[in-house]
Every structure is written in C-alpha cells, then in structure tokens.
Design a protein that fits this description.
6-stranded mixed β-sheet, 233 residues, Spore Coat Polysaccharide Biosynthesis Protein SpsA, Chain A, 19% strand, single chain, alpha/beta
C-alpha cells in the first residue's frame, strides 16, 4: 500500500479488495482508508472475483491490478505510465516489466526483469509473460470482451488477453514497474499452471484441442527434465 500511496503522481484512485482476511489486514487498510477511493473486506469467490469487484467499484479509464505480494518499484511508476498512456489513449494495454524478489521483510532480488515486446504467437505457444501488475488495461477492453473468468483461477489474466485476440492494440514500454514476491503457483506447481494455460487456450479457441494438449505435454515434460537436471547439478 505504501508503494502506491507514495507515488509522486496523484491523479489516480486506489481500490482495495480484501477477501475477508482475519490476520490484521483490515487494521492496515483502515490506517490508510482516508486515501482510498473504495475498500471492503468480505469473502469472495477467488482472485478473478476480487479483480472484477475492483473493476466494478472503479471509475478510471486505465486499470492496474496489484496483488498483495506485489509492489511498485519506486514513486515514479504512475507518472511514467501517465506519460505513455497520454500518447496512446485508444490502446487496449500498455505494459512494462516486473522482477521477482524474495519474501523476506527486506526482499532480495531473485530474477528479471521480465517483460518484452509483445508477439501474439509467442504469447499463445510459449506463454510469454504479459505481467498484469505491470500492465495498464483500458476499461474499454473489459467493456468489449467482458471481465475475468472466475473458473480460471491461475490463468485468469492469460485467458483474458487470449480472449482479446491478435488484434488487441498493445504496447510494451521498457521500464520496471513492479516487483513480485517469489513462490507463486506457477513455481510451486508448474504442472497445474501449464494445465490452466491449456484450459485458457481452449476457452479462447486460439489452438485446436489436439495441438493445445500436445503443447501442454511438451511444457510439462520440459519442466520436469529441467527440474531433474537442476537437482543433479
């Protein structure tokens, strides 16, 4: 929250959606409540539902989704975005880069930056990173194709951008936007992550079921071999 509220650009609204945490989160949110456009803490149906509630309660043209383990890298991020977005008002997505840091109180760099110029075929086949904590998405895109699917618990953002299709107007800007803490589902359970990406491809109808399934098996096999090699090293 401090990484958002410390921005030196102030023309934004900050929405906080909490799923009914019982760990003291609400005390932290209430501390900053006078600087929030909206917040609530109540049970929801998962991450996609929370994202969609954020969309519902916001008013701005551009939306960035920052999870509880993510933070902006410095106070200039939104100002840089504002400059880029001002020259591309009709684009669907403008995005930058993320890096990965450890989960300690003082996080250590683990990898990155991740994010590079968008290529549709690589996004479909290689699951190229289009990091939503570093992506400003135009509200008009949600109005055109719908919001996040609640049944895509891991690949909800991947399915959303696949659904937007190859004609999506998208621009990469090479600056570091946010840090993500290490240990997400794609690392803890890569097989499940690959399966959700497979389901996202099927839902968006971007590959035939047979080709998508072959791609899924290839990715799982490659991941298993890579993990085995690292253990033996």
């Amino acid at each position: 929250m401090q990484s958002v509220l410390s921005q030196n650009f102030d023309d934004f609204e900050y929405i906080v959606i909490d799923g009914g945490s019982g760990d003291g989160t609400c005390n932290v949110i209430e501390k900053y409540s006078d600087r929030l456009a909206y917040w609530h803490s109540k049970p929801d149906r998962g991450l996609a539902h929370a994202f969609n509630q954020g969309i519902e309660h916001s008013k701005g043209k551009w939306l960035i989704f920052l999870n509880s383990d993510d933070f902006f890298v410095d106070a200039s991020v939104l100002g840089k975005f504002a400059t880029e977005l001002g020259t591309r008002p009709d684009f669907d997505v403008v995005y930058g880069q993320i890096d990965i840091v450890s989960r300690e109180t003082i996080p250590q760099y683990k990898g990155g930056p991740y994010g590079k110029p968008f290529k549709w075929w690589r996004f479909v086949v290689v699951n190229d990173v289009l990091p939503h904590p570093a992506a400003a998405t135009n509200r008009a895109l949600f109005e055109r194709i719908g919001v996040f699917r609640e049944d895509m618990s891991i690949a909800l953002d991947h399915e959303f951008f696949l659904r937007a299709g190859p004609d999506m107007k998208i621009k990469f800007v090479p600056f570091l936007v946010a840090s993500m803490r290490d240990g997400g589902m794609s690392k803890v359970n890569p097989g499940e992550s690959f399966n959700h990406n497979h389901q996202a491809r099927l839902a968006a109808n971007v590959l035939s079921p047979r080709l998508s399934r072959l791609l899924y098996y290839y990715q799982v096999t490659r991941s298993m071999i890579g993990r085995l090699v690292r253990r033996q090293a």
